Amino acid sequence: MSTVETKKFQIAHFGEIDGVDCPCGISKRAFAVSGNETATVHVVDISEDAKTHYHKTLTEFYLILEAQAGAYMELDGEQYPVTPFTTIMIKPYCRHRAVGKMKVVNLVVPPFDPEDEWFA
C-alpha cells in the first residue's frame, strides 16, 4: 500500500490496478493508500453469487455500468431491478448484495476498510 503524496490530487489507472476477491466478485480499488481519509473508488466485476453483507461505518455509492438482463440489487431483503446508469446509495447497516452479473463503479466513503465487512 502506498502513501498519499503532498499534492492536492491523485490519479489512478484501473488498467494498472490488480483485482482482489470481495464478497461481490472481483474489485479494483483506487486510492486505497495509507493516509487517505476521503474515499476510495472501485470498479467491481460482480459475479452472479454475491454474498449478502453490510458495513457498520461505510456508505457506498453504486453506479451500474453494465447489468445482465434481470439483474437486481437486494437491499435489506427487498429486490430492486437495475439497468446501466442506475445509481444507488447504500448507508451503513443496510444488508445488500447484487444478483446477476454486473460491472459497477463503487464510491466508498470513508475509504474502504476490509475489517468493516459483516455477513448477514
Describe the structure.
This protein has a six-stranded antiparallel β-sheet, with no helix packed on it. It starts with 19 loop residues before the first strand and ends with a strand. With 120 residues, it is an all-beta fold. Strand 6 (72-75) and strand 7 (78-81) form a beta hairpin. The protein has strands spanning 20-22, 25-30, 40-46, 53-54, 59-67, 72-75, 78-81, 87-90, 96-99, 102-109, 118-119. The chain is globular, with a radius of gyration of 14 Å. It is 0% helix and 44% strand. It has one domain (19-112): Sandwich (Jelly Rolls).
Shape descriptor: globular
Number of helices: 0
Quote the CATH topology: Jelly Rolls
Relevant CATH superfamily: Jelly Rolls
Strand arrangement across the biggest beta sheet: 1-2-3-10-5-8
Radius of gyration, whole Å = 14 Å
What is the distance, rounded to the nearest whole angstrom, between the alpha carbons of the first and last residues?
Answer: 29 Å
**Which class of secondary structure composition applies to the elements?**
mainly beta
Tell me about the biggest sheet? 6 strands, antiparallel
Write the element-wise H/E pattern from the N-terminal end onward. EEEEEEEEEEE
Summarize the amount of helix as a percent range: under 10%
Q: Give the domain tally.
A: 1
CATH class: Mainly Beta
Low-confidence stretches: none
Arithmetic mean of pLDDT: 94
